Amino acid sequence: MWATCGDASGTAGGEPPVRVTVVTTLPDRRLLLVHAHPDDESIGTGATMAHYAALGAHVTLVTCTLGEEGEVHVPELAQLVAAEADQLGGYRIGELAEACAALGVTDHRFLGGAGRYRDSGMMGLATNEHPRAFWRADLDEAAGHLLEIMREVRPQVLVTYDPNGFYGHPDHIQAHRVAMRAVELAAAEGIAPAKVYWTAMPRSVLEAGMTHFAESSDNPFAGIEHIDDLPFGTPDPEIAARVDATDRHAAKEAAMRAHATQIPATSWLYAIAGNFGAEFMGVEYFTLAVGEKGPGVGPYGWEEDLFAGLGLDGEAGRAPVVAAGVR
Fold first, then answer.
1. Residue 39 CB contacts under 8 Å (≥ 6 apart), including other chains
2. One GO MF term, please (predicted)?
């Protein structure tokens, strides 16, 4: 990274400050992901993040809250919860750093800085009304924080949740709103990502999972009689991309284990990972919300690369990203 500028001293007469142009050399392919809480990135997009990081793409993760309202599955840390010491958010910063290291992701930011927005808790709880709850955040202000990152990184691809936040959590819904508003603001400046994806799960995959777990004592679908009873699930023809990162499934599992307070060691996620971990941990799906779909394969033409159709070579080439600022 380097900067060029003229005389930065100014004058005693109060002339305007000197404008400084910063040129940052980043890889040709730049991916930005917007998630609500620490651990969401690993569960939902960990394999994709590890895949592109390993290929040399620049992967930027933006997390909107510290996850202060999460449960604690480590008994000796139980007093960190919001109702006790209320220190869980700070602890989860460390868990997230460890998870990012496992995924090979070196560029992580908290939206507006760590602690600006608080975990809102599940929909309908009193925590939704906390003064710093992300659910209550001013949309343009929060989107402005994300826009600053987009100006710096200039991602060609952005990944976030669908309008229902994948499963209805208020912070996931708000993350979607903030990300899409930031894309609008970036478009007005001519720097919007070429493609925006939303995380998704094909109905065919869910149906296979329900069948697999039907006789299991640790059935995550217990009480669900029909796939339509689930708050998520996308018809297969509506899926746009399938990222096969089966060679990175171990990195995703390691990242999930880094979030020990949130994902107990006995979780069904690890049980299924042990049975067919590469397929379960290493394949992730997306719908395309903004942009043109690139070449794909299979009966529905699913893309195999989120950068498909953008004319990038896919290698770890480097290109200048220019941002102007005032010193």
1. 67, 70, 92, 95, 96, 99, 256, 259, 262, 263
2. zinc ion binding
Distances (CA, A) of 315 to 106, 129, 155: 18, 46, 16
Give pLDDT tens digits for 102-158. Answer: 999 999 999 999 999 999 999 999 999 999 999 999 999 999 999 999 999 999 999
Provide the CA 44 distance to its chain's centre, in angstroms.
8
- Looking at the predicted structure, is the pLDDT value of residue 215 above 60? no
- Phi then psi dihedrals of residue 110, to 5 deg: -95, 135
User: H/E element holding 176?
Assistant: helix 170-188
Q: Which residues are annotated as a binding site?
A: 37, 40, 172
Residue 18 lies in a domain: no
Burial 249-277 (b: 16+ CB within 10 A, else e): bbbbbbbbbbbbbbbeeebebbebbeeeb
Pick from 170, 90, 159, 184: nearest CA to 137 = 170
Terminal CA-CA length for the chain:
16
The CATH number given to whatever domain includes residue 206 is: 3.40.50.10320
Rg, Å, the chain Cα set: 21
Query: How far is it, in rounded angstroms, from Cα 148 to Cα 102?
Result: 26
Q: Tokens 């200048």 identify what position?
A: 320
Please give the full DSSP string across 76-110, using - where no structure is assigned: GGGGGSTTTT--HHHHHHHHHHHHHHHHT--EEEE
Tally of structural domains, the chain: 1
- Please give the residue range of the domain that contains residue 146: 27-326
The model's pTM is 0.87
Three-state secondary structure call for residue 290: strand
**Known binding-site positions for Zn(2+):** 37, 40, 172
In which band, very low, low, confident or very high, does the pLDDT at 277 lie, cut at 50, 70 and 90?
Answer: low
With tokens 């995959």, the residue in question is 205
What is the Cα–Cα distance from 73 to 118, expressed in whole angstroms? 20
